[in-house]
Amino acid sequence: MTRTFRHVLIPALAPAAFLLVASTPVEVLGCFNRGLIALTIAMVSVIGGLIFAVKGGLGRRRGDSDARWWGLSALILAIPPVALIILA
After folding, report:
1. What is the C-alpha to C-alpha distance for residues 67 and 73, in angstroms, rounded to an integer?
2. Number of Cβ within a 10 Å radius of residue 10
3. What is d(CA 1, CA 58) in angstroms, rounded to the nearest whole number?
């Protein structure tokens, strides 16, 4: 598994899933269910982003070369919560 796949493409599934749920019509999922699904995706993304940010920060202190990749993953995972705030 390459670094790009592991640190960019896999975390990019969360923003893609969030935007897919947010762009579906209300008639498909219902307003309440659509909101719960979007909130769940955003909260899981926040938790994952915090874990990756801590991992990147600790790696940066140790001089790990993967620390920047973990930071990039954390930034990608920050997209759904920001979009949730903007769309709310």
Report:
1. 10
2. 13
3. 23
CA atoms within 13 A on the CB side of 38: 25
Q: Which two tokens stand for residue 87?
A: 């769309």
- Predicted TM-score (pTM) of the model is 0.89
Distance from C-alpha of 63 to C-alpha of 6, rounded to nearest angstrom: 20
Q: What pLDDT shows up at residue 12?
A: 95
pLDDT tens digits for 23-76?
999 999 999 999 999 999 999 999 999 999 999 999 999 998 889 999 999 999
Could you tell me if 21 and 80 are in contact, meaning their C-beta atoms sit under 8 angstroms apart?
no
How far is it, in rounded angstroms, from Cα 53 to Cα 37? 24
Predicted local distance difference test score (pLDDT) of residue 3? 84
Tokens of 65: 């070369």
Look at residues 86, 88, 87, 55 and name the one whose alpha carbon lies nearest to residue 71: 55
